[in-house]
Each structure stands twice: as structure tokens, then as C-alpha cells.
Amino acid sequence: MARNVCEEILEVLIGVGVTQIFGVTGDALNPLVDAIRRDDRIRWIAVRHEETAAYAATAHNQITGTLGVCAGTVGPGALHLLNGLYNAKKEGASVLAITGQVPHAEAGSDFFQEVNLARVFEDVCLFEQPIHSPAQMPRLAQQAVQSALSGPGVARLELPSDVAPMKVHDDGMAHAIFEPMSQVVPCAEDLERAAAVLNAASKPTILAGSGCRGARDELLAAAETLHAPIVHALRGADVMESENPYWVGLTGLIGTDAGYRAVEDCDTLLMLGTDFPYRVFYPKGVPIVQVDIRGANLGKRAPVSHALLGHVRPTLRALTPLLTGGAGPSHLESIQKRRRKWDQKMDRQSSLEGNRTPLRPQGVARAASDAAADDAIFVVDVGECTVWAARQVRLRAGQRMIGSFNHGSLGAALPAAIGAQSADPGRQVIALCGDGGFGMSLQDFVTAARYGWPVNVIVFNNATLGFVKMEMEATGYPEYGEATDLVNPDFARYAEICGGLGFTVREPGEVAPAIAEALASPRPCIIDAFVDPGELTMPPVIAPAQAWGFSISKLKESLTYAKEKLG
Ligand SMILES: Cc1ncc(C[n+]2csc(CCOP(=O)(O)OP(=O)(O)O)c2C)c(N)n1
Q1: Nearest partner of 526 among 436, 450, 467, 461, judged by Cα
Q2: How many CB atoms lie within 10 A of CB 443?
Q3: Which of 19, 188, 255, 524 is buried most deeply by CB count within 10 Å?
């Protein structure tokens, strides 16, 4: 029997291993949801906001490698997907969005809920097409999936409500999706030139990004040969275990002293699979060798002297035998010394001993790190909590850390935790959120409870948009509580009324037991940790401008205070 348009879409998706679609149904999506209801091979995950669907689909793809799929219906439902899809784009995930559209008879008449979705989604999608006729199926669905997987990136299929239930007559175009396995290695000449530059270095440093995923051993072999410390970008945090002596930390504003210095002091930088965006944190006047599979990234952030187009893993396999390692260990050793000092400082900051309240956020993050399973997934929100996670979570070899690291969107952590947990309900998933970020997406905690997914949410409750408050202070604005203070509900009670477990944690002695109980529970949990809003997320090195900005802010605050008091 001939399939309808929605059934054809499902066939293509199932063919590439998709087992679930996150979304909110209605109108044009109803035939799609009905097709899913009748098909045991695929499941509809009913979230409470389409943005959750897009974040969850992204995380699912990041954890499993399988295409993530989300859906939002006509007009507003589709628009709600948008921010989450930008997250997918900027985090390099393969995601298909299925959106509804008004029936053809009404198209172009400013019909109820009609939005020119093609125009709105143009920037975020690398492929998008409306399905005008069943005759376009299954080819359009194949093209969309092929594009999202090959990008990687976001593709969108638009499903007008009249076309969705129409029968498709087989045009013989159904075929398997091509998932390329090829690994690109730069040519011998490029490799030799890069090796010559690296062999002349006496203080080489490696800057590793998410393009190094899966290349841990090759990365380490190159670092050992070169005697080079490896600094990483946030998206590359889980490429190697934190304890590795070559892995010296992050650079950038939220970086570590060793990470910052390793880049600043090097005499040659080897960039591997990274598009680290902050130009001021690149070294000046030294040769830079860059390896990236995305040609458009070559030389984008810094004056690169040798650019190699290739995947990191096979490139390093070909490059490392050409390296002579003449640098000697002194640069590496001096950075490692800094790293040990930094680690001691972080250990001191993360101490929860004594009766200190409010809690040190660093201590809460470290307690989560200590308690986590060897294959736990940390999902990190945006704000000061990103800094606590980046500095205090000591990642182990099988652990992952994901977040809206390149898009930087608040509220991404719980939805992404749901997407990650859906891939494997038995794996530990720990979301680290600020109270502002969690407040943006908390409606979907009930989704975790409904599906029996035991996500653990740790809320760093400082009753403020902490990172922004700090940012405003550092750039010289006086404090403005109306904009940055938060009035929060009782998050632990909220967990309970949603069907989860809630913990309120105020004393140092309550932190580890609450985390242990949450991690052991089969229910989703919220740990509402009351942390110190005054704990500063200091950059590794305080630039003079920042110090200056800080003092202006304090001056303005005192002037306002004096004016109010003295009239
Ligand atoms: C969607 C979105 N809106 C606003 C911002 C700007 N922003 C960045 S961090 C932040 C504050 C985060 O506050 P909170 O979640 O409480 O975490 P904290 O910094 O206090 O740990 C804001 C508003 C953003 N990144 N994304």
C-alpha cells in the first residue's frame, strides 16, 4: 500500500537510525504524529516547549552521532525551534527540523499563524524546502537528511497541512543515505612544511578543539614528541582526561593560568580542530600551524603561517613521524609547574570544609565531579556556572561535557540533559545550571519525570544573573539589581510537584549526601544549592582595562549612594 508523505519521511529517518523525534504537535504535524503512533520503530517525545526539542535533538546527536530530529508546527511552533537550531548550527550538530505550514490554498494570504518560514530559517539552515507535492517524496527527505549529516548542520523540511497526509507514488528514487567515512589527510608537501616549522620551535604549544574528538592518542603522541603542553578550547574539554600532564587547561577569559601562559609564551602554536574565537588570546608574532577539516576556518582568527586541510586524527598520524622533537622539555615543564600551582588553588577554592555559608559554588561543582560515574555526561549552562564547571570538573576518560559553548545560550542545559539522557536512560547525566538559566527551561523538568529519565540538575542558586552582574561591574556600570537580581521559586519543591526528587542544600555538609542520593535515584532530581553570589569568576590574568573598569563601577556606586544619602 502506498505510504503518505509523513510515512515516507519516517522511512528515510529510520533508515539512518533515528528512533525518536522531539516536538510539540498540532495542525500540520498531526499526520506525522499519527504515523509515528502506528510505527513501533520510532517514538514521539512530547516536550513542553519547541526550544527544548531543538536543544534535545542537538544533544542527542552530540552523544550518539545519530541525526537529531525535532518538530514544531505552523508559525509560532516552528519559531520556537529557532534558538535551539542556532545552537545546533554553532555546536556543529546534525539536526533535522520538521516544521508545519498552512495549507496551499491559504499560502500567501497572511492566514492564521502563517509565517514566511523560509525567510526566517534561511540563515540557520544549510538545506530547507517546503514539500509542495507528494511527488517530491522521498527525494526531498533524503536531501534534507543527507545535508544535515554531511554538513554537519541544520536542515528543515516544511510540511503544509494539506500535503502531509497525501499518498506518495513511488518514483524509484528511494535509496540509502550516504554517510561518508573518508578521512582527509593533507598532502605530503603541506605536512613536510608544517613539520619543518614545528621542528624549529623551542617552545611549542598545542591548542586543541572539538575537532580533536576521537584523536586522544594521536594528540598525546604529538605532544610527547614535541614536548608541547596542550591547551584546549571549552568545546574540546572532554577530548582528554583532565589528569593528563600534557593537558594544561583552557585559555581565554574563563581559562587557567597555565593555559593562558602556554599560549602567550609559546614560540610556535599548533592549532588542531579549533575555531577558538577570542583573537586577543592568540600569541603575537609567532608561527602558527593550523589543521582543520573546515577550510573556511583556516586563518580566520589569527595570522596562520601554515594551514593544513584535514581531519585531525589522520593528519597527526602522518605528521608526528616527521617531528624531531628538538624543543627540549623546559617550556613544557614550566607550564606544568604553573598547572600544579593552579590545581592547588582550585583545590583550595573547592574545599567545602567548615561551616562556610553560603556555599562556595566551586565546591559544589567539585563535589559533583567527585561523585560522578566514569561515563557521566556533564551538561553545562551559560554563566558563572560555566566557569565553575570548566575549572572544577575533573573529566575522566569516558566522561563527556557538552553545552551551548559556541552559541552561548542561557537555558540550554536542562533540555540538552534530556536529549542526552534519552539516548541512554542508564547513563548518568548531570546538568550544572545557574538559577537564571534553569529558570528559562524548567518547564521541561516534568518531561524528564514523564519519561522516567533520571537527569540530575544542580542549580547554583545565587539569586542573581551572576555572570552579567560581574560583566557590568567589570566594564564600569554601577550595580542595578532590578536587572540582575532574581526572585526564585523553591526549586526543590518544584522538583517534587513535577514527580522528581528535590534537595535544598545550604550547609557544606549537605552537599555530598544530596548529590549521592540524587545520583542513586531512578527519578529526575533537582539540587537547589544556595551558593555565594560574591564568589568571583576571575580571569586567569586581570587585564589592566578590567581592573580599571572595576574601579570605575565601584566609584559610580559610591557616588550614587552618597547622592541618595546626602540629598
Ligand atoms: C538566551 C540568553 N539570554 C541572555 C544571555 C546573557 N547572559 C549570559 S550569562 C547570563 C546570566 C546567567 O545567570 P545565571 O543563570 O543565574 O547563572 P550565574 O551566572 O549566576 O551562574 C545572561 C543573562 C544569554 N547568554 N542567553
Answers
A1: 461
A2: 15
A3: 524
